[in-house]
Amino acid sequence: MDLTESGRAGEEMAAQQAYDGIVLDLMLQDHDGVQICRNLRRRKVTTPILMLTGLSATPDKVTGLEAGADDYMTKPFDLEEFVARLRALLRRARADEGTRLHFEGIEMDLVKRTVTRDGKPISLTAKEFALLEYFLRNANRVQTRSVIGERVWDIAFEDESNVIEVYVSRLRQKIDKGFAKPLIHTVIGTGYILSAEGPPT
Predict the structure, then answer these.
(1) Distance separating alpha carbons of residues 64 and 13, to the nearest angstrom
(2) Omega of the bond prior to 199 within 30 degrees of 0, cis?
C-alpha cells in the first residue's frame, strides 16, 4: 500500500504503477480530487476509485461519479463500512476482468494460456507470457525496470543486469515483428510502455 497527501504525486503514482484500488480524497492540499479522477480516466487508468469527501450533497456525489469514481463515501464514515465498500469494488473489478485481456489486436486467454495478434497465434515462453500479461494489465502506462522486475520476476535486479532488456527484446520480436504498428516501446532512461501511440514525449 502506498500513501501520499499530495494530489499531483498520487496521480503520477496511480498512472505509472498497477494498483488493485485507489482511495481518493476530494479535498487535497495541492489539487482537486475530482480533477485527479478525471485525469486518471483520461490517461486510461481503469483502477477502481473510491472517493472520500466531507461534501454530502447529491450534486457533489454526482460530480464525483461522473468524473470516473466507482463509489463515493462521505466523512465521517464507519471503518467497517469503508472496508466492505472497498472490498466490493475490488471484487467487481476482478469479476469484470474475466479470463481474457485485449489491447490493439492482441488477445490473451488467461485460461488456455494462448496469445494472438490480429488472429495470428503467437508462441510465448512462460516468462514472456507473464511479461506480456503485465504490460497488458498496465497498457498506456510507463513501467520502470525496477517495477517490472518486482512484479514479473518478484526480485530486484541489479542495475547492471540486462535480463529485463533481453526479455523485452524477445517479446518485441514476437509481438511487433511483421505488424505495421509497434506496440512495445522503450522510454529512454525509464523503462517501457505498451502503447499504440508510441513512447510519451
Answers:
(1) 20
(2) no
CB proximity list for 101: less than 8 A, separation 6 or greater: 107, 108, 110, 133, 136, 137
pTM over 0.90: no
Residue type, 25: D
Chain position carrying cell 469484470: 96
CATH number for the domain formed by residue range(s) 7-96: 3.40.50.2300
Q: 100-194: which CATH architecture?
A: Orthogonal Bundle (1.10)
pLDDT digits (tens, 9 = 90+) for 133-161: 999 999 999 999 888 988 888 776 666 67
What distance in Å separates the CA atoms of residue 145 and residue 125, rounded to the nearest whole number? 20
Contacts of 35 (CB under 8 A, 6+ apart): 67
Q: Which grid cell sits at 62?
A: 454526482
